[in-house]
Amino acid sequence: MKKTAAQLREKAEDRYPELDAVLQRYKGRGGVLIKALQEAQALYGHLPRPLLIHIAYELDVPLSEIYSVVSFYSFFKTKASGRCHLEICSGTACYIQGMEDLLDYLAEELSLRPGGITADENFSLSTSNCMGVCSNAPVLKIEEELYSEMTTEKLQQLLKERATDDG
Amino acid sequence: MTDRLQRGGDVDEGQPRREDSPFYERQNRLVLRNCGVIPPKIDAYLENGGYEALTMALTTLTPEQVVAEITRSGLRGRGGGGFPTGKKWQAAREAPGQHKFVICNGDEGDPGAFMDRSIMEGDPHSILEGLILAAYAVGAVQGYIYVRAEYPLAVQRLEAAIAEARAAHFLGDNILERGFDFDLEIRIGAGAFVCGEETALLTSVEGSRGDPNPRPPFPVQKGAWGHPTVINNVETLANIPLILLNGSDWFNRIGSAGNSGTKVFALAGKVRHTGLVEVPLGTTLREIIFDIGGGLPSDKKFKAAQTGGPSGGCLTAEHLDLPLDYDSLEAVGSIIGSGGLIIMDEDTCMVDFARYFSDFNRQESCGKCTPCRIGTKRMLEILEKITSGQGEEEDLPRLESLAVLLKNASLCGLGRSAPNPVLSTLRHFREEYQAHIQEKRCPAGVCPALSRYYIQEEKCRACGLCARLCPAEAIFRDEEGEIYRIDAEKCMDCGRCLEECPFEAITGGKKRKKAVQR
């Protein structure tokens, strides 16, 4: 039998008080789904299923439609990131300047691949299509901080610093 | 920003003046005139002639006159399409309907292009002014600026600029008391390349998946929520105030025939000075790479320049003196695109490069139409087959027929232009594909499976040094005794032979691409 968003929501333990204020503003307006999802992700870091069910209920949008949007845009994440999230640019200039060596290094040293997270949840990794900083290729981003002209040596150093910062 | 992005210059003599650097000296910075020069604030913008074009147009010109002036200027869309801006405005102006929209396309998705980011961050008011003028010209009451999520600073600066413009009555009701109402909202993309395509951008602005739709109807007839909508690129809009202030005759004197004005190129890759380069359309590739960019680092040989990102193609040494404009690039199988210009030297494998873009296009295909969804995947599979050493002779005609199919049958520009990087490398670097397929060799030493060491017959003098040095005893004298050969089975890739050969007859081995060399 088909479950409605309300029924699904009954099961969801989590409640999202911070988000409700945001959703109030968007209720009943058209064309706001992407904006609402962006604000939800800004609040909680990622969009787990119970959160999406909550949004579906509050905005009165079918859950399937929400998933169609979330899975379409690479910006939306349904899984949690590590304590330190590495974003490596895979744009053309970065590719030419050897960003693959950075990916190889992370795969070898930490068994970390794009979309993955380390077992200790310290690091997670994603690639980005182009950060628009092509002059400084290859580039890596941690939160809002940008690291230019990366080499495996610099990456090694950075990982060491970040591991101790967070540990 | 661009100042910091630009490398080189004489740091020893303290901060060099921008105009003294050869990188800037040869440029004609019109659109970028304020970027990195003034703060992105309304006061600074006003002091530098900002909103003068808007004030002049609203007080002395009718909307029709604004459209006519832009048409006369010959301005063409800077996002890649190259469609005449005036014509687009005219169509939207004439389209029936009370409610019209103007949208600024700031979804700069082409990897390797970053001029729009620079303008949005460094001179947001020039975009606002261009957009308000567009709205006045076509009769729109609401506008959107669609910015990609990867550019958070651009969003911040634009939001601040919109608030400032509203406070100064350049936005809102009854602008400059001329009875013209217009307001703006920012829409942030969420990381989908296809949203740069205008029909996909529209569905994304409406809050849905960014699926493209067939054209016609064109957005100027039926756009956002079914209303006539003009979609202009960031750089296009930043040109508008300049044209209205200085006149279309002035604009026509810059650039070449049918290609008036300047274009900003994002120079990156294997070139000494990287950064944004604004030059008149029709400037040659040689001037940009060698005079402005300072040539290639470590004096490696120029191999190719990629223009137009994943929808574009490559230019080779024979095109160095080609004027870069919409028409001449199209004639040689590439496009100007959004202006990304990636320079490659002999260490870049063109087959691998085509594979890179095919992979990009496959990932970014939205999946709505079958030719693009499956075609980009099949194209990538063939290229992966070739780069991994499994390529067959028939793979090249297969690639070509797939390319034609994609070009003809895809729904939107993404699929229609997806084969371009493949077709263009096939056209100019077919011998590299052949080396991968017939000789199972990657000449640039990039493809791991094909990067074996290899003795070039014509250079080998049969001195035998390599065979004596080889720790794996993998090098043997050819039966005819003229040259030596490497037994790939025994070779352990140590590279000793390559280093020691007095005649530099040995090539190959996987070169690590890393280490930014400049």
Key terms:
heterodimer, A: 2 domains, 49% helix, B: 518 residues, alpha/beta, Rossmann fold, Ubiquitin-like (UB roll), de novo design (two linked rop proteins), 4 domains, five-stranded mixed sheet, 22 helices, 13% strand, elongated, disordered C terminus
Characterize the biggest β-sheet of chain B: 5 strands, mixed
> In the CATH hierarchy, what is the class of the largest domain in chain B?
Alpha Beta
CATH architecture of the largest domain in chain B: 3-Layer(aba) Sandwich
**Shape call of chain B:** elongated
Count the DSSP helices of chain B: 22
The number of helical elements of chain A comes to 8
Sheet with most strands of chain A: 4 strands, mixed
Largest interface: A-B, 42 and 53 residues
Plain-language structure description:
The complex is a heterodimer of chains A (about 170) and B (about 525). The longest helix of chain A has 15 residues, at about 150-165. Chain A contains eight helices and four strands, in the order αααααβααβββα. With about 170 residues, chain A is α+β, with helices and mostly antiparallel strands. Helices cover about 50% and strands about 10% of the residues of chain A. Chain A folds into two domains: about 5-70, no CATH class; about 85-165, 3-Layer(aba) Sandwich (Glutaredoxin), CATH 3.40.30.10. In chain A, helix 2 runs antiparallel to helix 3. Chain A has helices at about 5-10, 15-25, 35-45, 50-60, 65-70, 90-95, 100-110, 150-165, and strands at about 85-90, 125-130, 140, 145. The model of chain B is unreliable at about 1-15 and about 510-518 (pLDDT under 50). Chain B has four domains: about 50-255, 3-Layer(aba) Sandwich (Rossmann fold), CATH 3.40.50; about 255-345, Roll (Ubiquitin-like (UB roll)); about 350-435, Up-down Bundle (de novo design (two linked rop proteins)); about 455-505, Alpha-Beta Plaits (2-Layer Sandwich). Chain B has about 525 residues and is of the alpha/beta class. In chain B, about 55% of the residues are buried. Chain B has a five-stranded mixed sheet with strand order 8-7-11-9-10, with helices on both faces. In chain B, strands 3-2-1-4 form a four-stranded parallel sheet, sandwiched between helices. A two-stranded antiparallel sheet of chain B has the order 5-6. Chain B has 22 helices and 15 strands. Chain B starts with a helix and ends in an 11-residue tail after the last strand. Chain B is elongated. Helix content of chain B is about 40%, strand content about 15%. At the A-B interface, helix 3, helix 5 and helix 6 of A face strand 7, strand 11 and helix 15 of B.
